[in-house]
Design goal:
The radius of gyration is 19 Å and the shape is elongated. The chain has 9 helices and no strands. It has about 210 residues and is mainly alpha-helical.
């Protein structure tokens, strides 16, 4: 009988190889040849799924988004709304460990490519919408207000939208600092995030 290939499992092996290479050697190391060597495959086997480095990077960003979504769903399922839950939700997107640092490096590299290539606009836009939605949930949690009705919709209390915008921008800034500067260590990232959420809560009470 012919050998059956689990294509989903193979794609996950490729994802693990891409993230490992990015974490160890930067995005430039995540070539088709490099991924093949990391996964222990032939280049032909990798090219069966992805023919170029850009294709690999696009897949890695989609995998990153799926991982973040899974972490967010897990938190929302097991925890009730609170400032602590809000902080954990936002932390899912920050480079607080090696795995998430590799995810952020892939995301940052992809954003540069997506700005110059309209073929990636769908993924760029959905990533942005997902980040804004998580920021809105966090604001709703600390303010004790309702969620947006839809993924792209505003908060139930529109006066809190500026807070969601600021949190979203802060997340992007902390993510870039976290993979760029040694001083932006996980403890400092957590401290700045907690401070921003406390300010949101204070404004909501006022």
């Amino acid at each position: 009988m012919p050998k059956l290939v689990d294509h989903d499992a193979r794609r996950q092996e490729i994802a693990r190889a891409v993230f490992a290479l990015v974490d160890r050697a930067g995005v430039g190391g995540a070539t088709v040849r490099g991924v093949a060597a990391e996964a222990g495959w032939s280049m032909g086997a990798v090219r069966y799924y992805f023919s170029t480095q850009d294709d690999l990077l696009l897949f890695a960003v989609e995998e990153m988004a799926r991982r973040v979504e899974d972490r967010v769903r897990a938190i929302l399922t097991r925890e009730q709304p609170s400032a602590q839950r809000a902080e954990r939700l936002l932390s899912t997107m920050l480079p607080l460990d090696a795995e998430r640092a590799a995810e952020v490096r892939v995301w940052a590299a992809f954003m540069v490519i997506a700005r110059l290539d309209e073929a990636y606009e769908r993924v760029r836009a959905s990533t942005w919408s997902g980040e804004r939605f998580i920021a809105r949930i966090a604001v709703a949690d600390v303010a004790g207000r309702g969620w947006p009705d839809t993924l792209d919709g505003p908060l139930a209390d529109p006066s809190l939208e500026p807070d969601a915008e600021r949190l979203h921008a802060l997340l992007d800034g902390l993510s870039i600092q976290g993979i760029t500067y040694a001083d932006a260590d996980p403890a400092s990232l957590r401290r700045m995030l907690a401070s921003a959420l406390a300010e949101v809560a204070e404004r909501a009470r006022g």
